[in-house]
Queue: 2 jobs
Job 1
Amino acid sequence: MIRDNASEMAAKLAAGEVTSVALTQAHLDRIAAVDADVHAFLHIDTEGALAQAAAVDAKRAKGEKLSPLAGVPLALKDVMAQKGIPTTCGSKILEGWRPPYDSTVVANLKKNDIVILGKTNMDEFAMGSSTENSAYGPTHNPWDLTRIPGGSGGGSSAALAAFEAPLAIGTDTGGSIRQPAAVTGTVGVKPTYGGVSRFGLVAFSSSLDQAGPCARTVLDTALLHEAIAGHDPKDATSINAPVPQVVAAAKSGDVKGMKIGVVKELNGDGYQPGVRARFEESLELLAKAGAEIVEVSAPNFEYALAAYYLIAPSECSSNLARFDAMRYGLRVGDVDGASAESVMNLTREVGFGKEVKRRIILGTYALSSGYYDAYYGSAQKVRTLITQDFTKAFEKADVLVSPTCPTTAFKIGEKANDPLAMYLNDIATIPVNMAGIGGMSLPSGLADEDGLPVGFQIMSPVMKDERMYLVGAALEAALLSKWGAPLLDKAPIMGGAR
Amino acid sequence: MSSLSRDDVAKLAGLARIEMSDEELVNLANEFSVILDAVARVQEVAGADVEPTSHPLPLRNIFRPDVVVPSLTPEEALSGAPAQEEQRFRVPQILGEE
Amino acid sequence: MTLSYDDVVAKYEPVLGLEVHVELNTNSKMFCGCSTIFGAEPNTQTCPVCLALPGALPVVNEKAIESTIKIGLALNCSIAPFSRFARKNYFYPDMPKNFQISQYDEPICVDGYVDVEIETDEGPKKFRVEVERVHMEEDTGKSLHVGGATGRIHGAEYSLLDYNRAGIPLVEIVTKIVPGTGKYAPEVAKAYVAELRDILRSLGVSDVKMEQGSLRCDANVSLRLIGAEKLGTRSETKNVNSLRSVERAIRGEMIRHAELLNAGGRVVQETRHFQEDTGLTRSGRSKEQAEDYRYFPEPDLVPVAPDAAWIESLRAALPERPSIRRKRLQEAWAVPDKEMAAMINADVLDIVEATVLLGADPTKSRTWWLGEISRIANDKDVALADLAITPADVAEIVALVNAGELTDKLARQVVEGVIAGEGKPSEVVTKRGIKVVNDDGALMAAIEKVCGEQAETAEKVRNGHLPAAGALIGAVMKETKGQADAARVRELLLGHLGQTN
């Protein structure tokens, strides 16, 4: 039953064919069987999950009306605060920290009676594209355990691909939901900025961060999207408007007459042939389904990566200042005669990993007096230009598309010592965050040269998230038709379970 | 060609309260000369007539009413404290002037 | 040798800058819903936001915005149609995020002024202190330094942090530089802070108690040779906790700067701490290397763009300016300057006005509050406002005296009774049986009785020795239990003994 998708599980739960406790236990067993190899999870809340599951079963027995995903298990990226449960953000500096409060996303999950299995691995403080920057060791791609699962949310996507959970929550600042989805053959969505509350999402880059739904199908993702999205008065940047009708769109999948814009600048050199091939095929399928493919240009996108690697480090240098050994988290060097300052300095040196320190220093520089205008200030201007490019492009097309990332999953260790090469993984996903629009990645097939998953990215205008789901559902259906079975059936069988 | 010296990085590390080893400082200085060149590209298009964006959304005037909401209990507030005394966070001696 | 102040101002002219921080009296904090009540047990008024737990986000308190706009309007500022919050980044254990949410280049109010009047050798003189900006920010937590001498930070072994005050809304009011005050710089500064305090109090946006820290003043001073154009190096003095300290601190700094400059030295740009006991300042953090705060727009908060209608409604509801109110009352009550100053210094203006509004004569009201009642307050070592007597009570007592039902002396008994909690004036009169004996017949009976008992003294008066009447009057007062009108007794007595008053 772990190989069902979430909607199928929900249907069985509703029909009384299975209890949530049994379903949850099955997933806990699966985790026990495979996670030693995958290492998707940092913390498994066996007791809590089973208790939640039992509570849902009790409600159902009483005949209470339950939400669509009630009783279905989920994996939570370890960057989201969950009360009483260890939340590390993949960092040593928060080892053992248990938040005294729930993030709004978690509160919404609980309200919907979704069972939280545990916290998933991630690049430290969401900085990275491979989950190799986790202080607790990398996660391994279920398609090939020697390869990265993407990042920063590699744990969540790996958990899905390894059937350890049918649903997951990720966060996306420059592609951290979409790129892992692409390289693991799963679905991931970054909603419109402000569509999902950031209260309780440990901040990396405040104006770019967004939590989002991940699953194995577009419909599952849509159901999860509606469960977590919505206005939150505790987040001053959250949008006070109804949640886009993404489930209806996912169920419809009717793209007849829709204009699909191919972004010229996001599909050129540097993209692996297998990635481009799958992309072209997907375009053909969408055309067959009645959509019109047009070409659009976004000339300022070539500056997006540079701008991102100024804005995000700048904001993070400030957001991570609170990790100072005074109120929570790691404290080292507190010996006789030590000062608060020396304890702070030593703790941050020891508690933060290399990439985090690199970005903090870069951000400190970009904001510093005399350099602000040239770096941070200029990056904010590029942001305006990118937004304008999107606005113009959306006049010509209802959604924009591109390959999600230039390559398939690379080997663990392959790019670890080349920061710039690592940063290039996000080249197609970053513009979406810069403009605050919505972005989805869904599997478009396997690359011929290495047999690894390739992702198709769909981008929709601000608060028009339903368009991504419409096009995604259409493509998914067409591909399923073509393949005859879900793509993940082709992944290596792990743990002997089917 | 922008570059940072080891001492430049040391100053930044000081501002960021991270005690870096000499080796780290030198490595970062080297990495930065490549990174800074790459990110400096933003200056190519950041003309004087372009407005900077600090917020992706055109929201304004988001407030909360002046109403008291229950706080955390002191136990919850102090639950993560590396050290505490008399219901306060205990920190090593502070050198800087108030 | 220490320079005299006169020596200093003979050679140099001061330039002032004043930064005043005001704690707003909102119910909840600036960016979260924690209570702002003073004096709570440590860390009982904290939450993920003001503790800066990972993942927490700020949301702006609407009342704080309103109060800040009111302050700006009262200081004649323009309200910015668009203003933004910014992060001021620096590390300090009492500041949980290690940045303060403040405002940088887009404050909410700009370009205002406050007019003050001070006494000079040439009589009263007006000064206009220009206000550069008014902006919002948040306060820090409080640290207790343990192990050192006198709880100070130097030599402390460790510190204990309480974050109850972290996130309390603060408004910062910054003046433009204030030249042209000459030797009156200390007085101008004091008058400015005093006027600011009165304006803020009249707006009801803060307790403005300097001793409690809800109004804090940092004084910046620099000197330049008289007639010079270039500004001298300034020093910033903190820990100025009273109006008198403002004056003393500026005077002290002017002398200190002058001594340095006269000796060929250089004033260091630094933060100094004012010391109450000596009136001098002590060096603190050096600002030679100004800390790089790396300001950038706060991404977790959206800009503030108050609409014109809201601003105008706040402007329309502004209370009368304190200085204007004082002038109006002084004219209406025909109070001489000295007495007016006494009322203002004793802070009884509000309470006297309340009494007058209930119908009492202004002079009598003033006399009661400043005189007898203040004396009782001092004896009991309590504040005037904490006594059980109200303006309504005083108005009633004045009315009773006017109606002849009480003499001033009896009225004092009634005041005592009301303060002692025996009830309203009329109740005290009844309970204590206080009644002016108006009846001439009764008075005559008492007079005749006393004259009979003290025949010799009565004889003296009959023979023209008037001072002797005092003893007889005293006896009559005693006979009537103090309830006779002494003046009337005297009249009747003298008449009875064949003398005129």
Job 2
Amino acid sequence: MDFDILIGIFPQVLLDGIILGFMYALIALGYTMVYGVLEFINFAHSEIFIIGAFVGVEILLSFKAAGWLDVLPWPLVLLIILVAGMLVSGIVAVVIERTAYRPLRHAPRLIPLISAIGVSFFLQDVIRLFESLWRNSFNLVYPTMEVLNHRFELTATIDISVKSLVVIVSALLMLWGLHSLVNRTKVGKAIRAVAEDQAAASLMGINVNRMISLTFLIGGAMGGGAGVLFGVQYSLINPYTGFIPGLKAFTAAVLGGIGNVPGAMLGGLVLGLLEAFAASYLSLLTGGAFGAEYKDIFAFSILILILIFRPKGLLGEIVRERA
Amino acid sequence: MIKEILDRPVPATVLVVALLLVTTWGVTYSPRSIVLFMMFQGSILLLYFARMPTPLKAGLTILTLGVLMPILGTINAYYMEIAIQVGIFVALALGLNIVVGLAGLLDLGYVAFFAVGAYSWAIFGSPQANLIFGGSHFPLSGWWFFVFLFVGVAVAAGAGILLGLPVLRLHGDYLALVTLGFGEVIRVLANNLDKPINFTNGPKGITPINRPPIFFAPLLQWLGIDPDPNVIYPLYLYGLVLLIVGATVLANRRLEDSHIGRAWEAIREDQTAAQAMGVPLVRMKLLAFACGASFAGTVGVLFSAKQIFINPESFTFMESIGVLAMIILGGMGSIPGAILGAAVVTILNLQILKGLSLWLNELRNAGTVIFGYNLTNLPTQLEPAKYERMIFGLILVLMMIFRPQGILPAKRRHRELEEER
């Protein structure tokens, strides 16, 4: 085995893993926050995520058509698509909660989950329908922005592109913003109270329904932001792209301890790193017998192992059994 | 008014028989009319609802499915294809019905067992196995197909237990996610196990897969009938599907009323209480997984023989959700519900959406103008047949919100919901 190659690609793989990890962390927040307040897996979150990516690409394409893409300063363009993606995704998440989940809040546990799966499937084809009518194509590519593809060479073997830096910085800003919102503001306190005990929270004068909507708004916005960053980083999107990252982000949320906000961030990073290393090292270590295509299996195996041996995750509290 | 007629045996029988005959005649008269074929299907549904003596009903059902349907199938081969597909999905839905409907374990990776069954025959019924074991003993002759129907049961049940053992301690939504992951794992394996040893031939799939021989062929020759293989073979497959569906329904009904079925329902309603009453949780859940999986395994074997060609594309997550949508539409835990759900969803997919697509294409090519909008401008990506997910999704959400017990709820469950009111 060529040891030098293994060492040589290490920093690059680490970097890829961190980017992927931040992406997962941002998506995982949506799962974990909703689980925290409602104890239910918002299966449609992967579509909320990809809607953000589609909002981003639509704005970029129309800017390009109008010739603004070269005129406007690129940080402003990025800011616009990020904010727009977050806004739209957040609103979609709230609307989904109002229409498909709220009527089922007191139903047996599997019922809202099935409804959520339905919403997820429905949204995938709604996006497809919309894009088919609007652009006659549902596989969209983010327009290239020259500045973003510029690469800094750190050493002879490692380089980092501007867009990777952008992704990391925006992800950090979003995570920091969320952390402050949940832990430092009154609203954040109210959300935590609802997650702790809905009945008691409502007795304390907290509007539980509004807090649940707010949770969906924030979680959705994080997902939408992640979607935009996903598009900027990986360029190619279609309505079904969100599914696998969504599933993995859910794995990340479980890994970190579902319902736990810092846990989701940690879980996302750990999973991203594991996956990046699995993808690059698996084929090197097995002499090409098993390649990067097994990285998905890797993620699911992790999910199964955690659920069996440590269902509360890395940072989580013990999950209560609810009949 | 229709309900009043259906409640009285004589008018009901007359109505149903008349409808069946008229629609059959209609289809023979105009083979390409989807509407007429749908009316034929509708009259089968009326037959189910009609109140008449059981032997008469059974006789009419056998007559309809065993004689009228094959006649229609020879007139328009596509109808036979639809009937076979409906049968395959009915058997799948009945299998999933055990896991989800009776035992209350949400399995989102059900198609994995279907895949396991399909690949087990595909590998040995085609030259593929030579690549694994060397030599040239394969493909096995078509007669082995009948053995593999049972091998499919065993392999899929084994896979069910394999999945069940580690994950059955999980409850509710976690279980759902893990089964989903399992389904994806099987698909990824099927996609990538073309190296280091070529088991599945990867995304290119396996072909040609041997088909079961027509065992009564010598009899036909003796009778002096020389059938066109393109006509007789679908009929033969249809017969096999009917047999398997019949066996599945029978097994389901026997299971439902056995102590095992009652234990499953107890687990579904309240796991803790069931355990306190002495229901062995792990064994019963494993049994549910294995039973559900074994149906999928058999159907998988049949499916691979029918298709001659299989690849991982046929075993995606969407198929799992499709089957789930079928039993939720029909009513969880209800056998007639699962059958109805499977039929409705399959017909919707294969017949209505496809028909709509063709129709839209014709309009587009003809350049028809509707409300001043020229349809040639319609985007080419707009194909109703491609929007299965939207249909599945809508079914799931709407059923959950408005009628969680399904169209034809299980009797026991129906009573429970009545009491709660």
